[in-house]
Automatic annotation (TrEMBL):
Protein name (database record): Uncharacterized protein
Native organism: mine drainage metagenome
Length: 89
């Protein structure tokens, strides 16, 4: 598993390159996904937030096929995780 500092640093770098409204949308999506992860798995809140950030960064990179993650792709991936019915997760 990636170190916490690496995930937080990568997420911070992503948010610094975005405008305010996009950062807010991404932050909201990470928070919602983290709440779902924490509820579903019983993981502590901080661990669920790191997991959400990591998933956002990794999915954005894979889906966009770029060396740097795209905020819009990360937002879309997290939105899908939050809205997908539990039976297909």
């Amino acid at each position: 598993m990636k170190s916490t500092g690496t995930i937080d640093a990568r997420y911070e770098a992503l948010t610094k390159s975005l405008d305010g409204p996009t950062v807010q949308r991404l932050s909201d999506a990470v928070s919602r996904a983290a709440m779902r992860f924490a509820f579903a798995s019983g993981a502590p809140g901080a661990q669920a937030v790191r997991l959400s950030k990591s998933i956002a960064l990794d999915l954005a990179r894979v889906e966009a096929n770029r060396p740097k993650p795209s905020a819009e792709t990360a937002f879309a991936a997290l939105r899908e995780i939050v809205t997908r019915p539990p039976s297909i997760r």
